[in-house]
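Take a specimen:
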Amino acid sequence: MKMQSSTLKKNTRPHWAIIHPFQLRLQRGIETYVWGLTEALAKTGIEIDVITWHGPLPVPESVKEAGVKIVTMPEPRYFESFFASFFYLTQLLKNHYDHVLVHFAGYGEGPSLNLMHWFKKPPYSVVFHFPPNLVPHRYAEFRRWHFDRDAEHLIAVSNSTASEVADWSGRQVDVIGHGVDSSFFCPDAELRKKTREQLGIPDDALVLITVAALEERKGIQWGIRAMQAYPSIYYLVVGDGPYSDKLKQLAVSLNLEKRILFLGFQLDVKPYLAASDLGSLLAYGEAFGLVLLEYAAMELPIVTSCHDPFPEIIQDAWGTIVDEQNTVMLSNLLDELSNPEKRQSMGKSAREWAIKEHNWDEIAAQYRELIR
């Protein structure tokens, strides 16, 4: 009987959980990352549970097809973080996970994992998608619940964020970047034409795009200001957020409102990427910027600010780093990239880089190698 029990255990697939409360509520880089990673890990044979809160957003069909299990907390009217602690604890006790990946501590993750010391605490790792200098309160929550000490691995999505986390924690921090589905994000001439027609954009117009939350730190205002010196460019702004009204007021004050299209939150950003010629992210306070991979996979040359982590990511063959507040430099760059042959060459290099360095299969393999 002991041999049979041992054999059954060896044949059991690894069972991991990824805890992320906002997976069905928001669609930022971190949520996109979780869907991509879970799908890729499931394809390697790991049984994956995504433990999340109730929300209106759908689970991607490809995630369902990969066999990922979505475990949703019933929706309490108040004190979600309080109820989440007991919900997570129940799942941890019930499923005996081989490993758990968490991204926060203050939404119930900290108390539930701490309470597990009375039982058998599962090994867990923390994945950092934000640098300490941007959200110090998040790191205070990690420290409060001893995540900096008790986690099996600390993982950051870029070297610059890893360096900050290492200074904060005094521990080794592993770096595993984002991935992109290059079979979905790929150039589509027919979709490009259709979307431009729907938006009323001429075929020969140069189109800049930013996909981001509309916050001041995302730097969209600098792209708008640079447009003053370049009368034939359109700007697609995809996203929503607290800085939306100020950006729209800026566009009106500069008489650019007809060429700046504020498209709001979009569940599917591919049509707008297909319609574009250049991808922009003039932000600060980023840990990686997953949208850069989507730009690259769509063969868009990329323009970023000079802030971390962009210097470690951007390559001259397909991207340019600028002082985002220097509107003259930015305007000159837009003029330089109006050359379609130059854009085509850079775009192809960008896609080759994304496929080689940031495909989800490779990212999943790095996680499996780290978490044995």
Confidence is low (pLDDT under 50) at residues 1-10. The chain is about 45% helix and 15% strand.
